[in-house]
Protein backbone atom coordinates (compact mmCIF):
# COMPACT_ATOMS: atom_id res chain seq x y z
CA UNK A 1 0.00 0.00 0.00
CA UNK A 2 2.80 2.40 0.89
CA UNK A 3 4.64 1.60 -2.33
CA UNK A 4 1.59 2.49 -4.43
CA UNK A 5 1.30 5.85 -2.69
CA UNK A 6 4.99 6.60 -3.38
CA UNK A 7 4.53 5.80 -7.06
CA UNK A 8 1.27 7.72 -7.38
CA UNK A 9 2.73 10.97 -6.08
CA UNK A 10 5.30 11.47 -8.88
CA UNK A 11 2.70 10.45 -11.49
CA UNK A 12 0.34 13.16 -10.25
CA UNK A 13 3.22 15.66 -10.19
CA UNK A 14 4.19 14.74 -13.74
CA UNK A 15 0.56 15.13 -14.90
CA UNK A 16 0.28 18.52 -13.27
CA UNK A 17 3.53 19.53 -14.93
CA UNK A 18 2.17 18.61 -18.40
CA UNK A 19 -1.08 20.51 -17.80
CA UNK A 20 0.87 23.56 -16.68
CA UNK A 21 3.14 23.36 -19.73
CA UNK A 22 0.15 23.17 -22.13
CA UNK A 23 -1.56 26.10 -20.42
CA UNK A 24 1.56 28.21 -20.69
CA UNK A 25 1.91 27.30 -24.37
CA UNK A 26 -1.63 28.58 -25.03
CA UNK A 27 -0.91 31.79 -23.13
CA UNK A 28 2.30 32.25 -25.11
CA UNK A 29 0.34 32.01 -28.40
CA UNK A 30 -2.07 34.69 -27.25
CA UNK A 31 0.58 36.92 -25.64
CA UNK A 32 4.11 36.16 -26.92
CA UNK A 33 5.65 38.31 -24.19
CA UNK A 34 4.47 35.79 -21.59
CA UNK A 35 6.86 33.04 -22.71
CA UNK A 36 9.67 34.22 -20.39
CA UNK A 37 7.41 34.00 -17.35
CA UNK A 38 6.29 30.57 -18.49
CA UNK A 39 9.84 29.29 -18.70
CA UNK A 40 10.63 30.56 -15.20
CA UNK A 41 7.52 28.99 -13.65
CA UNK A 42 8.07 25.71 -15.51
CA UNK A 43 11.71 25.54 -14.42
CA UNK A 44 10.90 26.24 -10.76
CA UNK A 45 8.09 23.66 -10.78
CA UNK A 46 10.39 21.07 -12.32
CA UNK A 47 13.03 21.72 -9.64
CA UNK A 48 10.53 21.00 -6.88
CA UNK A 49 9.68 17.49 -8.12
CA UNK A 50 11.64 15.17 -5.81
CA UNK A 51 14.30 13.16 -7.60
CA UNK A 52 13.75 10.20 -5.34
CA UNK A 53 10.04 10.09 -6.18
CA UNK A 54 10.86 10.20 -9.90
CA UNK A 55 13.18 7.24 -9.50
CA UNK A 56 10.45 5.30 -7.69
CA UNK A 57 8.02 5.99 -10.52
CA UNK A 58 10.49 4.42 -12.95
CA UNK A 59 11.01 1.40 -10.72
CA UNK A 60 14.63 2.33 -9.86
CA UNK A 61 16.09 2.12 -6.38
CA UNK A 62 16.79 5.42 -4.59
CA UNK A 63 20.42 6.18 -3.66
CA UNK A 64 21.65 4.93 -0.31
CA UNK A 65 21.62 7.39 2.55
CA UNK A 66 24.62 7.78 4.84
CA UNK A 67 23.15 5.56 7.56
CA UNK A 68 22.54 2.76 5.05
CA UNK A 69 26.17 2.54 3.90
CA UNK A 70 28.11 -0.33 5.44
CA UNK A 71 31.91 -0.54 5.51
CA UNK A 72 33.62 -3.84 6.20
CA UNK A 73 36.62 -3.81 8.50
CA UNK A 74 39.78 -4.91 6.72
CA UNK A 75 41.40 -6.06 9.95
CA UNK A 76 39.92 -7.38 13.17
CA UNK A 77 42.16 -8.63 15.99
CA UNK A 78 41.49 -12.27 16.80
CA UNK A 79 42.28 -11.77 20.46
CA UNK A 80 42.54 -8.91 22.92
CA UNK A 81 44.07 -10.81 25.80
CA UNK A 82 46.60 -13.25 24.40
CA UNK A 83 50.09 -11.71 24.85
CA UNK A 84 51.58 -14.24 22.41
CA UNK A 85 49.27 -13.04 19.65
CA UNK A 86 50.94 -10.24 17.66
CA UNK A 87 47.50 -8.85 16.78
CA UNK A 88 46.45 -8.67 20.42
CA UNK A 89 45.91 -5.27 21.99
CA UNK A 90 47.75 -6.57 25.05
CA UNK A 91 50.89 -6.95 22.92
CA UNK A 92 50.95 -3.20 22.15
CA UNK A 93 53.06 -1.32 24.73
CA UNK A 94 51.37 1.46 26.64
CA UNK A 95 52.33 4.99 25.56
CA UNK A 96 54.60 6.96 27.86
CA UNK A 97 55.48 10.60 28.43
CA UNK A 98 58.52 12.60 29.44
CA UNK A 99 58.95 16.35 29.81
CA UNK A 100 61.81 18.68 30.57
CA UNK A 101 62.32 22.45 30.56
CA UNK A 102 65.64 23.47 29.06
CA UNK A 103 67.17 26.86 29.83
CA UNK A 104 69.26 28.26 27.00
CA UNK A 105 71.82 30.98 27.83
CA UNK A 106 71.39 34.48 26.35
CA UNK A 107 72.29 34.64 22.67
CA UNK A 108 73.11 37.52 20.38
CA UNK A 109 70.44 38.60 17.95
CA UNK A 110 70.19 36.13 15.08
CA UNK A 111 69.58 32.45 14.37
CA UNK A 112 71.40 29.79 16.38
CA UNK A 113 71.74 26.04 15.83
CA UNK A 114 70.74 24.39 19.12
CA UNK A 115 70.23 20.72 18.18
CA UNK A 116 73.31 19.51 20.12
CA UNK A 117 72.17 21.39 23.23
CA UNK A 118 68.66 19.92 23.02
CA UNK A 119 69.94 16.37 22.49
CA UNK A 120 72.33 16.69 25.41
CA UNK A 121 69.44 17.61 27.70
CA UNK A 122 66.90 15.01 26.54
CA UNK A 123 69.16 12.22 25.23
CA UNK A 124 68.60 9.84 28.14
CA UNK A 125 64.81 10.12 28.00
CA UNK A 126 64.78 10.09 24.21
CA UNK A 127 66.59 6.75 24.05
CA UNK A 128 63.65 5.05 25.75
CA UNK A 129 61.26 5.72 22.86
CA UNK A 130 60.97 3.36 19.91
CA UNK A 131 58.40 5.50 18.11
CA UNK A 132 56.79 8.78 19.03
CA UNK A 133 56.84 12.56 18.81
CA UNK A 134 58.98 15.28 20.37
CA UNK A 135 57.29 18.62 20.91
CA UNK A 136 59.36 21.74 21.60
CA UNK A 137 57.76 24.93 22.91
CA UNK A 138 59.55 28.20 23.61
CA UNK A 139 58.04 30.27 26.43
CA UNK A 140 58.71 33.69 24.95
CA UNK A 141 57.16 36.20 22.54
CA UNK A 142 60.32 37.79 21.15
CA UNK A 143 62.15 34.62 20.12
CA UNK A 144 61.11 31.66 17.99
CA UNK A 145 61.93 28.12 16.91
CA UNK A 146 62.30 26.73 13.42
CA UNK A 147 64.00 23.88 11.55
CA UNK A 148 66.49 24.69 8.82
CA UNK A 149 70.05 24.19 7.55
CA UNK A 150 72.37 22.72 10.19
CA UNK A 151 75.68 22.94 8.32
CA UNK A 152 76.46 26.28 6.72
CA UNK A 153 76.25 29.18 9.17
CA UNK A 154 75.78 31.57 6.24
CA UNK A 155 72.20 30.32 5.99
CA UNK A 156 71.51 31.53 9.52
CA UNK A 157 73.14 34.89 8.81
CA UNK A 158 71.16 35.31 5.59
CA UNK A 159 67.93 34.45 7.39
CA UNK A 160 68.59 37.17 9.95
CA UNK A 161 69.33 39.62 7.12
CA UNK A 162 66.02 38.74 5.51
CA UNK A 163 64.07 39.20 8.75
CA UNK A 164 65.69 42.58 9.37
CA UNK A 165 64.76 43.77 5.89
CA UNK A 166 61.18 42.50 5.82
CA UNK A 167 60.17 43.87 9.26
CA UNK A 168 60.73 47.64 9.66
CA UNK A 169 62.60 48.74 12.75
CA UNK A 170 63.72 51.96 14.37
CA UNK A 171 62.14 55.28 15.27
CA UNK A 172 60.66 55.69 11.79
CA UNK A 173 58.82 52.34 11.92
CA UNK A 174 55.00 52.60 12.19
CA UNK A 175 54.71 50.64 15.46
CA UNK A 176 52.73 51.87 18.49
CA UNK A 177 54.25 49.38 20.93
CA UNK A 178 57.62 51.01 21.65
CA UNK A 179 57.77 51.05 25.47
CA UNK A 180 60.34 48.24 25.56
CA UNK A 181 62.57 49.61 22.84
CA UNK A 182 62.49 49.97 19.05
CA UNK A 183 63.47 46.32 18.55
CA UNK A 184 60.66 44.87 20.69
CA UNK A 185 57.66 45.13 18.36
CA UNK A 186 59.66 43.81 15.38
CA UNK A 187 60.73 40.91 17.62
CA UNK A 188 57.08 40.05 18.34
CA UNK A 189 56.27 40.03 14.63
CA UNK A 190 59.27 37.84 13.76
CA UNK A 191 58.35 35.46 16.56
CA UNK A 192 54.91 34.97 15.05
CA UNK A 193 56.39 34.46 11.60
CA UNK A 194 58.46 31.44 12.67
CA UNK A 195 56.29 30.28 15.56
CA UNK A 196 56.86 29.12 19.11
CA UNK A 197 56.73 25.33 18.68
CA UNK A 198 58.06 22.38 16.71
CA UNK A 199 56.98 18.74 16.38
CA UNK A 200 59.61 16.18 15.39
CA UNK A 201 59.13 12.42 14.92
CA UNK A 202 61.04 10.00 17.15
CA UNK A 203 62.37 6.77 15.65
CA UNK A 204 64.49 4.23 17.52
CA UNK A 205 65.46 6.66 20.26
CA UNK A 206 66.50 9.50 17.94
CA UNK A 207 64.97 12.65 16.49
CA UNK A 208 64.08 11.58 12.96
CA UNK A 209 65.17 14.69 11.07
CA UNK A 210 66.77 15.01 7.66
CA UNK A 211 70.53 14.96 7.23
CA UNK A 212 70.79 18.72 6.85
CA UNK A 213 68.01 19.71 9.24
CA UNK A 214 68.70 21.34 12.56
CA UNK A 215 66.74 23.05 15.33
CA UNK A 216 67.20 26.81 15.39
CA UNK A 217 66.65 29.27 18.19
CA UNK A 218 65.89 32.59 16.54
CA UNK A 219 66.67 35.46 18.89
CA UNK A 220 64.95 38.68 17.82
CA UNK A 221 66.04 41.08 20.58
CA UNK A 222 69.23 43.12 20.71
CA UNK A 223 69.74 42.45 24.42
CA UNK A 224 68.24 39.05 25.07
CA UNK A 225 67.81 37.12 28.29
CA UNK A 226 67.96 33.37 28.86
CA UNK A 227 65.30 31.45 26.94
CA UNK A 228 63.29 28.48 28.18
CA UNK A 229 62.20 25.63 25.90
CA UNK A 230 59.79 22.95 27.14
CA UNK A 231 60.42 19.57 25.48
CA UNK A 232 57.66 16.96 25.69
CA UNK A 233 58.21 13.38 24.51
CA UNK A 234 55.34 11.00 23.83
CA UNK A 235 55.33 7.54 22.31
CA UNK A 236 56.18 3.90 22.93
UniProtKB/TrEMBL annotation:
<protein>
    <submittedName>
        <fullName>UPF0047 protein YjbQ</fullName>
    </submittedName>
</protein>
<dbReference type="InterPro" id="IPR035917">
    <property type="entry name" value="YjbQ-like_sf"/>
</dbReference>
<dbReference type="InterPro" id="IPR001602">
    <property type="entry name" value="UPF0047_YjbQ-like"/>
</dbReference>
<dbReference type="Pfam" id="PF01894">
    <property type="entry name" value="YjbQ"/>
</dbReference>
Amino acid sequence: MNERRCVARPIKSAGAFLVLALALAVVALIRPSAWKLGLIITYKFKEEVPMQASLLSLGAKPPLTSHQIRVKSLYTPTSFNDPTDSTSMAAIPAPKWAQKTITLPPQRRGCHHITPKILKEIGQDLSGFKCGLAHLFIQHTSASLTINENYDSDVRDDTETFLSKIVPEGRSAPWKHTLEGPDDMPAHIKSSMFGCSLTIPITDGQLNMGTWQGIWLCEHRDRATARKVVVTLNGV
